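USER: Fancy drafting a protein?

ASSISTANT:
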Amino acid sequence: MDTRKALITALAGGSMLAGVALGAAFTAGSSANAATTTPASNISADASASPGVFVSNEDPAHEATESAEREAQENAGQRPTVP
């Protein structure tokens, strides 16, 4: 009976170790990709702006689709809350 407990303990420990190794292997690649990719919304942002500062999109094609309320919020330096 003692050999059986040791075998079960070794199998349980081995499966947990394998699970940790697989988890680390899958998450290591995704965190590196997340750190190096640039979201499309930040491509046209002013490079001198600090993180968290709203920079409005003044592209004419974008401006043509905006509501007056949204444009007023952008002009006031606020992050728009209306479409």
Q: What stands out?
A: The chain has three helices and no strands. The mean pLDDT is 76.
